[in-house]
Design goal:
mainly alpha; rod-shaped; 157 residues; 9 helices; 0% strand
Length: 157
């Protein structure tokens, strides 16, 4: 029997038949070759006998941070013109911006103040002397806190 014909009958390549023949596989009949393969080959390495385990899911794509920041900027402008219509979408978009990218957003203070809880805006009045005395790190922490309140990530009790 030709190796090419045996390869086709076994569902393997002619080169594989040649390798297995050198390992002792008989090539005179398909049945003899099949029996030899069953006794001598690891089933996990035999084509058609492998167990295909599910592959782990691909990680989710990285968010396009620049696009999210641009969306917040655009919604901030729209909310300046019509706050009630765009406030909810603005809050949702603000939540999607990762904390380390939030400093890129220039806010409209009128819109930002309206996003904050009403009971907070009554007690917060910008004190320019206090703001000037804050370090950059303190100002950043305060800004992130207010941002989290404005977008609804945090709620005051």
């Amino acid at each position: 029997m030709k190796q090419k014909d045996l390869a086709e009958a076994l569902g393997i390549s002619a080169a594989m038949v040649s390798r297995l023949k050198h390992q002792g596989m008989p090539t005179h009949s398909v049945e003899a070759a099949r029996r030899w393969r069953e006794r001598h080959l690891d089933p996990a390495r035999v084509v058609g006998q492998r167990v295909d385990y599910p592959r782990p899911a691909a990680p989710p794509p990285e968010p396009d941070v620049a696009a999210r920041v641009d969306l917040v900027r655009a919604l901030m402008q729209l909310a300046a013109a019509d706050f009630d219509q765009h406030a909810d979408n603005l809050r949702r978009a603000m939540r999607l911006v990762p904390p380390d990218a939030r400093a890129q957003i220039t806010v409209d203070m009128d819109v930002f103040t309206r996003l904050l809880p009403a009971n907070l805006t009554e007690v917060i009045e910008p004190d320019h002397e206090v703001c000037a005395a804050q370090s950059d790190a303190e100002a950043e922490i305060a800004g992130l806190f207010l941002y989290s309140l404005a977008c609804g990530e945090l709620e005051l009790q």
